[in-house]
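quick one
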Amino acid sequence: MSASRKSKSAHKQNRFSLDAFLASSTASVNAALDRFLPAEQTKPATIHKAMRYSLFAGGKRMRPALVLAAAQACGGKEVDAMPLACAVECIHTYSLIHDDLPAMDNDDYRRGKLTNHKVFGEGIAVLAGDALLTQAFEIAAQAKGWARYSHRDLIREIAVASGSLQLIAGQVADLEGEGKKTSVAQLKYIHERKTSALLCCSARLGGMSANCTEVQLKALTDFGYHVGLAFQVIDDILDVTQTSEKLGKTAGKDTKAQKATYPSIVGLAKSRRIAAQLTEKAFASLLPFRGRAEALEALADFLLKRES
Ligand code: GRG
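structure w/ geranylgeranyl diphosphate:
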């Protein structure tokens, strides 16, 4: 039986509800972010308003959900994973604010609302991104270290995933590739860094917050890598198949900016097959958990089928 078929029957038997898991993880993450961030009125109020504006604009909270689901799969506690879950969401939101700036992707809408610079101006939007990136490390510093994973390991994990060899490398390659002929290998290089790195880091951090074994960490790394790549292939597909209303951001932007995407290079049908194959590989990575990674399985399935 394939890993995905096995996972579907496991869902049926255990009646795992992803809706309930996401409702609960989103509520806890939102409450924790609210506690971790300076209040809106804290001086200088403009920057704290701007940080909170984008952070609480209605993102799907998929990266924190991955942290919490991975922690759960390894028998960890939500309270130990929460600072790391909030830290990755702050990094993700910073990257979206900066990506939307006129100097980068130049977008007016994000998460169904006007982008940060459209509301607060470009200067404050740059600073709100910077402040969220910095805030992420302040929050992560509140996580506890473990026998297998020191405090330093946790901080380094986040720094590497968001640094110039990963997230920023992907964004640089994306910017430099605009309007140029791009190979599938180059596109994979971009997707691995721009998208997969932070999703993979999220899964790993969840495991680390539960003092997971080496075998579990390897499984989470493989899972996060494949789910991360599938996430971006789906994102590319949604850009050409969905409306701006549904996406909460401007649809069709990749085509307009002559960006290389999976649909533009290999076509829609093959892109869908690639996303499904990557998700199969993600399911297969979870075999060492022997059915105890229900939330991760359900998340991978949900991400493959998402429409926004
Ligand atoms: C500026 C350093 C820097 C990096 C920017 C985030 C990013 C890299 C670019 C934005 C465009 C893009 C396609 C990024 C890939 C990651 C991605 C698909 C982000 C959107 O993530 P979702 O769908 O967003 O989880 P929400 O709003 O739901 O959190």
